[in-house]
């Protein structure tokens, strides 16, 4: 997803900086662990599936871990933790690979994505497709480690992951589809642990979907200038100058659903204390969020990893205290 970091003649002279003293919004960062530790031929594949930027994987995994705790009414098994963690890593990688395949022509015209492997020529389309099939093959093996109910849910996830990169071409709400797919593991955590998905678990999942619509809309404001020029769509374009009000509404709905979901599945009092901390964190995000500071939005997007950690703490507190 990033520009070549080695002196191979492909990288721009100003990689990692922006002209005119403006913040560089490229999601390429020079001299990271991919460049330092991986063989050069592996780097484009690591960047294609976003191994160099694990925040998305954590945002996929953390709500799923919270659901595993709630479904197990305490500590889930180590085996289940391993399978769901690997599944989150792979499905996020598949989603990112598909996104870059579909968007390879658009990405070259967007400041944040202009140096990704397919766009910059570090990787051919054929090799990206082979890599995609390899990731799907490993995911297919994980189906043998979960129950039949969860296998069907996993199959239903595939078209959601495939269609998401295309959504920005015909709807202002691609973040909703992304949220559905990103948090699908929460439903599977219940189906695999208890062979059922109760109403409270569905409420927790819908809350996580709305949470993602909120924080990914913050992220989308980084690209809004390029999106307007290219004719692609996002919630940031839909919300326009009312972004803070919309995102605040999604965050408020998230808290309401997590309160209801916790009550429906029998969380203890300590769960609600931690949910109140999450609500305070959302309020802080909205005080910092600014349409005029897209560089600040990266920080706010990453700050949602703390929300995921707190959601796990809430689940543990609600089951163990």
UniProtKB/TrEMBL annotation:
<dbReference type="GO" id="GO:0005886">
    <property type="term" value="C:plasma membrane"/>
</dbReference>
<comment type="similarity">
    <text>Belongs to the UbiA prenyltransferase family.</text>
</comment>
<feature type="transmembrane region" description="Helical">
    <location>
        <begin position="243"/>
        <end position="263"/>
    </location>
</feature>
<feature type="transmembrane region" description="Helical">
    <location>
        <begin position="202"/>
        <end position="222"/>
    </location>
</feature>
<dbReference type="InterPro" id="IPR000537">
    <property type="entry name" value="UbiA_prenyltransferase"/>
</dbReference>
<dbReference type="InterPro" id="IPR044878">
    <property type="entry name" value="UbiA_sf"/>
</dbReference>
<keyword id="KW-0472">Membrane</keyword>
<keyword id="KW-0808">Transferase</keyword>
<keyword id="KW-0831">Ubiquinone biosynthesis</keyword>
<keyword id="KW-0812">Transmembrane</keyword>
<feature type="transmembrane region" description="Helical">
    <location>
        <begin position="303"/>
        <end position="320"/>
    </location>
</feature>
<keyword id="KW-1003">Cell membrane</keyword>
<comment type="function">
    <text>Catalyzes the prenylation of para-hydroxybenzoate (PHB) with an all-trans polyprenyl group. Mediates the second step in the final reaction sequence of ubiquinone-8 (UQ-8) biosynthesis, which is the condensation of the polyisoprenoid side chain with PHB, generating the first membrane-bound Q intermediate 3-octaprenyl-4-hydroxybenzoate.</text>
</comment>
<keyword id="KW-1133">Transmembrane helix</keyword>
<feature type="transmembrane region" description="Helical">
    <location>
        <begin position="123"/>
        <end position="143"/>
    </location>
</feature>
<feature type="compositionally biased region" description="Polar residues">
    <location>
        <begin position="1"/>
        <end position="11"/>
    </location>
</feature>
<protein>
    <recommendedName>
        <fullName>4-hydroxybenzoate octaprenyltransferase</fullName>
        <ecNumber>2.5.1.39</ecNumber>
    </recommendedName>
</protein>
<keyword id="KW-0997">Cell inner membrane</keyword>
<comment type="pathway">
    <text>Cofactor biosynthesis; ubiquinone biosynthesis.</text>
</comment>
<feature type="region of interest" description="Disordered">
    <location>
        <begin position="1"/>
        <end position="24"/>
    </location>
</feature>
<feature type="transmembrane region" description="Helical">
    <location>
        <begin position="172"/>
        <end position="190"/>
    </location>
</feature>
<keyword id="KW-0460">Magnesium</keyword>
<dbReference type="InterPro" id="IPR006370">
    <property type="entry name" value="HB_polyprenyltransferase-like"/>
</dbReference>
<feature type="transmembrane region" description="Helical">
    <location>
        <begin position="269"/>
        <end position="291"/>
    </location>
</feature>
<dbReference type="InterPro" id="IPR030470">
    <property type="entry name" value="UbiA_prenylTrfase_CS"/>
</dbReference>
<feature type="transmembrane region" description="Helical">
    <location>
        <begin position="149"/>
        <end position="167"/>
    </location>
</feature>
<dbReference type="Pfam" id="PF01040">
    <property type="entry name" value="UbiA"/>
</dbReference>
<dbReference type="GO" id="GO:0008412">
    <property type="term" value="F:4-hydroxybenzoate polyprenyltransferase activity"/>
</dbReference>
<feature type="transmembrane region" description="Helical">
    <location>
        <begin position="78"/>
        <end position="102"/>
    </location>
</feature>
<dbReference type="GO" id="GO:0006744">
    <property type="term" value="P:ubiquinone biosynthetic process"/>
</dbReference>
<dbReference type="InterPro" id="IPR039653">
    <property type="entry name" value="Prenyltransferase"/>
</dbReference>
């Amino acid at each position: 997803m990033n520009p070549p970091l080695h002196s191979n003649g492909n990288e721009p002279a100003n990689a990692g900086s922006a002209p005119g003293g403006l913040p560089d919004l490229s999601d390429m960062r020079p001299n990271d662990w991919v460049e330092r530790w991986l063989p050069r031929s592996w780097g484009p594949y690591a960047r294609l599936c976003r191994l160099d930027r694990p925040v998305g994987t954590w945002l996929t995994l953390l709500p799923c871990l919270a659901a595993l705790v709630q479904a197990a009414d305490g500590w889930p098994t180590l085996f289940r933790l391993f399978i769901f963690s690997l599944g989150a890593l792979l499905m996020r990688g598949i989603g990112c690979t598909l996104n870059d395949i579909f968007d390879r022509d658009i990405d070259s015209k967007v400041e944040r994505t202009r140096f990704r492997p397919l766009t910059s020529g570090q990787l051919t389309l054929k090799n990206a497709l082979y890599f995609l099939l390899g990731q799907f093959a490993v995911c297919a093996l994980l189906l043998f480690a979960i129950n039949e109910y969860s296998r069907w849910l996993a199959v239903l996830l595939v078209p959601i992951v495939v269609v998401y990169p295309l959504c920005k071409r015909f709807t202002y709400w691609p973040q909703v589809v992304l949220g559905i797919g990103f948090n699908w593991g929460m439903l599977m955590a219940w189906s695999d642990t208890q062979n059922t998905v109760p109403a409270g678990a569905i409420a927790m999942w819908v809350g996580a979907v709305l949470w993602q619509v909120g924080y990914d809309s913050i992220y989308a404001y980084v690209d809004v200038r390029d999106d307007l020029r290219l004719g692609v769509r996002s919630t940031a374009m839909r919300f326009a100058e009312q972004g803070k009000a919309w995102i605040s509404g999604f965050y408020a709905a998230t808290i309401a659903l997590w309160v209801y979901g916790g009550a429906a599945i029998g969380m203890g009092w300590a769960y609600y204390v931690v949910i109140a901390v999450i609500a305070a964190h959302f309020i802080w995000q909205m005080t910092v969020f600014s349409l005029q500071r897209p560089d600040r939005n990266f920080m706010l997007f990453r700050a949602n990893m703390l929300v995921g950690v707190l959601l796990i703490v809430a689940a543990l507190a609600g089951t163990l205290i």
